[in-house]
Amino acid sequence: MIPSLPRPIWLRTATVAYLIAFLAFLFLPLAVVAVFAFNDAPYPAPPWRGFTFDWFLGNAALGRTGLFADSELLGSIWTSCIVAICVTALSALVGMTNAFLIERGRFRGKQALSILMLAPLVIPGVILGISILAFASRIADIADDTFGLELDFLRPGLPLVVLGQFSYIATIATLTISARLRRFDRTLEEAALNLGASKAAVFRTILLPYLRPALLGSAAISFLMSFADFNTTLMLVGADTPLTVMMYGRMREGATPVLNAVSLFLMIASAVLALTLLRRGGSPRAKPAQ
Amino acid sequence: MLKAAIDPRWHGRLALGLLLAPALLWLGALIILPHVDLAVLSLRERVGPRQYVASLAQYKTFFAEPLYWHVFLRTAVMSVIATLLTLLLAFPIAWIIAKLARGRAGSLLFIICLIPFWVSETVRTLGWMILLRESGVLPALLVKLGLTAMPVELLYRDATILVGLVYTSLLFMVVPLVSSLESLDNTLIEAAYDLGAGGFAILRSIVIPHAAPGITAGCIVVFMLTLGNYLTPTLLGGKNSQWFTEQIYTQFITRFNWEQGAAFGFLLLALSTALVILGLRLSGQRFGDVMRRT
Question: Chain B: residue nearest A45 by CA?
């Protein structure tokens, strides 16, 4: 019931109890990950054996490999960053051209095209992964058979991972940027044109500054989603493993708290990103992990 | 004057072409053609080295081998259960955010609810594993409280998979629910109350019809994501997870049987598309409107 109507005391109590339980459910998994990054034990499990920074700073001499000495893990973070930067740049670019196409363009089949642009969001990530894998391999095979060309970038590896993630993250960038472009007051643009500004000048001095929050917001979301993507990446990955796939492999084997350490690092990094974005007034919505 | 010599209509077409190119390249090369190729792949059978004939053998294997369609059905049923549980759990919090909390408290609570989802699913699943495994936090707590004599293994159960799936999906339910509940006019509820309606009647005849678009949007997205999830079922369910995406992975990557994997992929895609359409039909929504809500 809403506040303006009388609410019985049992309902108020139940609401508060539910709220507390809900928040506990939400934050408990993250809290244990953070806490056990500092436990002085070889496995992230109770009991508590004292506080340590070993899982961050440890090295071979200490007998424990901490995050900053784990070159495999650091390498995978770097791989994830490169992939995420490529995906973000591609998505922002295509998202912007799509936004202008949908909001400004007039052509037959526009309705159908804009519906088609939403399709990647309802195709499971695993299927996006296998379809791109199969199609890229077919093209690589054809190139090999008919022209004797070795197109290595079409074999499982980082270029395919970038394309796979881009295939659905582009939709999110398109939605974010076109939502803002739709609310743009076109009289501003007409005024500038009437005053003699060229189309390029209007784009640079009026449209681009106006779209900036949406561009930054969609870039942050693209980066996070790319960093967190697992399903599509798993199908397309080659020799270089991004962080999520690396963590998955280690979690299956039962890893040391170094995984907690890297997780804590991720939490802090994404919290910082989220807060900067909120301060700038961007959209707080995330759409992670498809 | 060179500028005047260029026909403005031609100019407009050039601009349109330049804007169309990235969209067509993206959708054509990464969505449409790969899926056509996948369909072709699923409809052929290997008869010798590099020799293939068109056949329905891959789909026949699916129906002939009980393991495959059992896992398929199980994945579908578990996904439906997970979606309903997510809706039940998310509705009250969405109500609190949209109706009960006043002013800044509401948006603050909303942001707090979104924070965990900025962190990747891998990290969240790691948290659940630390909490639930035999040597984990909750079994140790149960022993301490005297509820169990020995630590119990809480991982690798169906209920655990459901907990993980619901947890991962909450955001996608809370966001559309909050936006559809916020637009509900409080005076309607007050009027119904003044006319003598009870809480349940108000919920059934005012709140739910109004929130239907948000409920549909949330359910569709959650169902689709749950069905296609790989990480949560395999890590929290272990060998007992029996999730259909795992079968696809096995065929594609482990066994290198791409024809069979492609057929499985198409079956999963068909199931998810069918339920999306069913959801839209049941609530009388349009696809484009629903997707823009999420």
Answer: B136
Q: What is the pLDDT of residues A226-263, one digit of tens each?
A: 999 999 999 999 999 999 999 999 998 877 899 999 99
Query: Which residue do the tokens 């039940």 mark?
Result: B88
Question: Residue B49 — φ and ψ, nearest 5°?
Answer: -60, 120
User: Is A115 within 8 Å of B287 when comparing Cβ atoms?
Assistant: yes
CA of residue A112 relative to chain centroid, distance: 27
CA angle A279, A89, A268 (to 5 degrees): 40
Q: What domains, with CATH codes, occur in chain A?
A: 1-48 (no CATH), 71-279 (1.10.3720.10)
Query: Scanning every residue of chain A, which has its alpha carbon at the shortest distance from the alpha carbon of B266?
Result: A127
ipTM surpasses cut 0.90:
no
- What is the spatial distance between Cα B226 and Cα B270, in angstroms, rounded to a whole number? 15
What contacts A6, CB < 8 A, 6 or more positions away? Answer: none
Q: Which domains does chain B have, with CATH numbers?
A: 55-99+157-293 (1.10.3720.10)
Bridge-based pairing of strands B51-54 and B44-48 is antiparallel
Residue B45, classed as helix, strand or coil, is: strand
Q: Is the peptide bond before A29 cis (omega within 30 degrees of 0)?
A: no
- Choose, out of A127, A144, A275, the residue to mutate when testing the contact with B (most B CBs < 10 Å): A127
